[in-house]
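Whiteboard transcription, Tuesday session. T.W. wrote the structure tokens on the left side:
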């Protein structure tokens, strides 16, 4: 790429990079502050954000962000005050944030939020319960990765109003898939702690299914209804049964296959492919067979 084209490219992508960085910072601040405590490891992760986005320092308000975060490092201003000032700055900037639509911005904030929770390598009860409140207040993100997965996992984890260590590690392992922790020591600790953890909770719960001209794929062994009968029900309701998950598949119905609710010890080929498509931005919903059959029965 020659110098002129590179400059044109930077002009075109500059706003995109800046808005995404601000949304990420906003989420990290939310995540760090969920338990109303800020520790040195979390501050260090904020400093890593500064290093990663240092090239944007000439853009307003990045110079202010960098200066404030550096003030924490040098203990010039109390940490709590800095966090509040940084949040105020992100809110002030929000009015000028026009590159992304509100939905995409909120998804970027969610990713940053999980990053902030994981910043010190610890996922505590307070953070989990507060994240659940945030999820509940942002239902407009339904059918988008990673909202559905996190929402369903939290529903499963908090069903008994408490969090055990296996559930805590499951959330930690899931957040670690997309929360790019910069501190190498903490990143290694998280990887070691979760290496044997099976991530579950991938099916969308409380989903509003549209049948007309939507494509449905089925995988796994169905417990509730024979596959042929379910395909016929889909056709009667205006849907289109398909054999494989593709870019234009709308719903993947997963057979229970002996597992509880939406938990899967092994995702399976079609589920793995659906997850990959969701990460690329495709709107494919993964639905447990029992939830799907309940909806079909109600519509018959």
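and on the right, the sequence the group agreed on:
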């Amino acid at each position: 790429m020659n110098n002129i084209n590179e400059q044109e490219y930077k002009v075109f992508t500059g706003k995109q990079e800046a808005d995404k960085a601000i949304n990420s910072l906003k989420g990290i601040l939310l995540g760090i502050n969920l338990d109303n405590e800020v520790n040195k490891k979390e501050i260090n992760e904020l400093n890593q954000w500064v290093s990663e986005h240092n090239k944007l320092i000439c853009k307003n308000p990045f110079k202010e962000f960098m200066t404030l975060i550096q003030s924490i490092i040098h203990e010039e201003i109390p940490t709590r005050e800095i966090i509040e000032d940084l949040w105020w700055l992100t809110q002030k900037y929000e009015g000028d944030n026009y590159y992304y639509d509100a939905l995409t911005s909120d998804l970027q904030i969610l990713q940053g939020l999980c990053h902030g929770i994981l910043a010190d390598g610890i996922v505590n009860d307070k953070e989990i319960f507060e994240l659940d409140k945030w999820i509940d207040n942002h239902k407009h993100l339904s059918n988008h990765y990673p909202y559905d997965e996190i929402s369903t996992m939290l529903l499963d984890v908090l069903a008994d109003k408490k969090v055990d260590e296996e559930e805590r590690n499951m959330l930690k392992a899931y957040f670690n898939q997309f929360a790019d922790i910069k501190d190498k020591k903490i990143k290694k600790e998280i990887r070691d702690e979760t290496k044997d953890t099976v991530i579950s909770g991938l099916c969308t719960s409380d989903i509003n299914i549209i049948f007309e001209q939507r494509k449905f794929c089925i995988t796994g062994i169905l417990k509730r209804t024979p596959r042929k009968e379910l395909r016929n029900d889909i056709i009667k309701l205006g849907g289109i049964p398909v054999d494989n998950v593709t870019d234009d598949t709308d719903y993947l119905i997963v057979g229970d296959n002996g597992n509880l609710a939406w938990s899967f010890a092994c995702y399976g080929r079609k589920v793995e492919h659906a997850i990959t498509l969701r990460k690329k931005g495709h709107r494919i919903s993964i639905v447990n067979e029992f939830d799907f059959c309940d909806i079909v029965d109600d519509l018959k």
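Someone added at the bottom: The first strand starts at residue 215 and ends at 219.
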